[in-house]
Amino acid sequence: MFYKYIIRFADSEEKVIDIQLDSKSLTLIPSGDLEAPEWARLDFCKCTICPLSSASNKYCPIALNISGVTRMFADRTSVTPVEVRVETEQREYHKKTSLQNALSSLIGIYMSTSGCPVMEPLRPMARHHLPFASVEETAFRSVSTYLLQQYHKHRKGEKPDWDLELLRKAYKDIESLNQGITDRVRSASRKDANYNAVIILDAFAKMVPFTIERGLPQ
């Protein structure tokens, strides 16, 4: 599977980011030219919720995989206007938006597919990634994907979580993770586009459980 983000600036400069996923596991296939920066080390601004040990994991899997993107946009401001084209196997998406929104959509894929245990509940959503999704669309995709997983558990004789309790807990954990990732990315950025993109993702992470608790639309 692949997602190609083509970000075009007003001066016609283009940045192309290719994301390759294993079609069965939905895990990120790392780029061969990854350079591990110091801020990608696991113990650098380590997330309070992180279950990994630096004895067996030298680098944070998310930080390592987003390091190339953050390097590419480290000197860009959030509100920079861009035109974005996203190519997938099935279709293309186009949008004129701010750079922070484009990066938020892009970094979200890296975060859910890099192999971070805390982000594991969101990995299945990568199969039907929707660029530039609204909060309502994100909540719908998250809940429907999760409920499909619970249906398969039920079919296997396992106990399903129809009340979405574990999904809500997962999003609370992801909020903690987002703080650590924001701190890492901020340390690697001269301007604010990169870390504001993560802050947008964090806002979505807060809104999804709120939407569930308030009552999903029928």
Features:
4-stranded antiparallel β-sheet; alpha+beta
Can you tell me about this structure?
The chain is α+β, with helices and mostly antiparallel strands. It has one domain. The protein has 5 helices and 4 strands; from the N terminus they run E-E-H-E-E-H-H-H-H. It has a 4-stranded antiparallel beta sheet, covered by helices on one side. Strand 3 and strand 4 form a beta hairpin. The longest helix is centred in the last third of the chain and has 23 residues, at 165-187.
CA distance, first residue to last residue: 32 Å
Strand content: 5-15%
Order of helices and strands: EEHEEHHHH
According to DSSP, the number of beta strands is 4
Provide the spatial order of strands within the biggest beta sheet.
2-1-3-4
The rounded Rg comes to: 17 Å
* Silhouette: globular
| Helix proportion | 40-55%
Output the number of helix runs.
5
> Main beta sheet: strand number and arrangement?
4 strands, antiparallel
Integer tally of domains: 1
Put the structure in a nutshell.
The protein has helices at residues 61-72, 99-113, 135-155, 165-187, 193-214, and strands spanning 2-9, 14-20, 81-87, 92-98. By secondary structure, it is of the alpha+beta class.
What are the SSEs and their pairings?
Elements: E1 2-9, E2 14-20, H1 61-72, E3 81-87, E4 92-98, H2 99-113, H3 135-155, H4 165-187, H5 193-214
Antiparallel strand pairs: 1-2, 1-3, 3-4
Helix pairs in contact: 1-2, 2-5, 3-5, 4-5
